[in-house]
Design brief:
The protein is mostly helical. The protein has a single domain, classed as Tetratricopeptide repeat domain (Serine Threonine Protein Phosphatase 5, Tetratricopeptide repeat, Alpha Horseshoe). The longest helix is centred in the middle third of the chain and has 19 residues. The protein is elongated, with a radius of gyration of 19 Å.
Amino acid sequence: MKVGSRAALVAIWLGTTFAVPAAARQVDSGLEQIESLIAADRLEDARAALDEWVRANPAALSHDRAAAGILRGRLARSWNEAEQALLATALGYPASGDAAQALLRLGQGLLTAARTRAEPDAGRRAVAYLERLVADYPNTPLRAQAFLWLARALHAQGRTAAACSRLEQAPAAPDATTAALIEAERQLRCTAPSNPRDPHH
């Protein structure tokens, strides 16, 4: 993978946030402090703090370990590191709310890799992870975003009809931004041209 492409992929994890209700995101205070370090762009401090938290909490609750896995992915220095951390979270803690976030981030990263031609077969894998997210996590607050990114991944593969179908199936978004993005994607990809056909053709 080219250095520029790798940097673009890692930027996703540091810059992407999700509208998850606060009650669903209660984690160990040490992990919250790491989130604060990330928000302050103190990434090296955040990496060191995460390493120390993992060493100090070998018996942490599963939802905290899953949250730590998401942080590991966000703080990764390369796409390969991020993918490994996110996949470990999705597979290792499937009952946690963070598993859904891990699958969404995997889909986003792989779609970016496909668009930049940085990784072979990335587009197909992006669709697979996002389809799993839609199928296995019907109650996640990230569901609307999952349908949006799945539609984008399908369109990138030339599967426009499937992409439009997924956009039609998308649930109501919990935030105005995601709702607007879904509608914009639908208008861009799925609205038929307004010019009427010539009846003689």
